[in-house]
Amino acid sequence: MTHRVSNLRLRSFVFSLATSFSLLCSIPAHAYFPFITDDTGTQGEGGNQLELNYVFIKERGVGVAEDGTYYPGDYGTSNSFPMTYTRGLTDDLDVFVGIIRQTSPTNGWMNSAIGFKWRFAGDAEEGWSFAIKPALLTPVTRSMETSGLGNGKTNGTVSLISSYLQPKYEVHVNARYTSNLSYSGAEDQQAQHLWGVSVAPVWVLNHQWKLGADAGLETNPNATSAQVAYAQIGAVFAPVKNVQLGLGLMGNRAIGSPSREYNWSVMSGVTWQF
Question: What are 192-213's pLDDT values in tens digits?
Fold first, then answer.
């Protein structure tokens, strides 16, 4: 069988997520990194938050035969460093900007995100609260897109967020949409619209430790299957006031894909409120 090199690029949940940051085409901007599912928490008027994170991904890619059928591709890895600054304009409204530096397999800046989070119901102290989080995803150049650093067209994402808080546990639920427009992504190879839902239960062990799980279903950016499912476990440790350390392990797999593509990732980072 004759094969051709695929143009299908990595669209990890961290990038949907590490700009979702939705998926990964959004950059996380919340205190519960490393979880993909966001919470309704805000910084409060005049509050600031800085997130410095590291993400390692190992994936099996997608091969495309001359007749257009898919087959399992090669294995590859990537290393990236998402960074997000958040500012509280009011007690219920945050603005944020996020950037990602990838160091391998290509060294360069990926798509950036500029957006806000507005908690429009509830007080995020106890019981239910609800928020909306839209963001603009700025494009990279065409040459950067060709090298796999992101999308060369402007995109957008919006998440609806709900949190239920109790002293010993929390539950966070997200529904999100992200556009996926690019110069090189032909419609028969790339989904133009990405939808996702996720839920993350978090157990509050004490004032320093939180343990959680995260699971979701997303549109597969690659046309090899309709959806991708992911699952994650993670921990948040607060060694001192206003500082949290996060560590997570996540895996995702395309559902029913003949190429059997999947990836797993390790995420770590520090969050500082000031």
Answer: 899 999 999 999 999 999 999 9
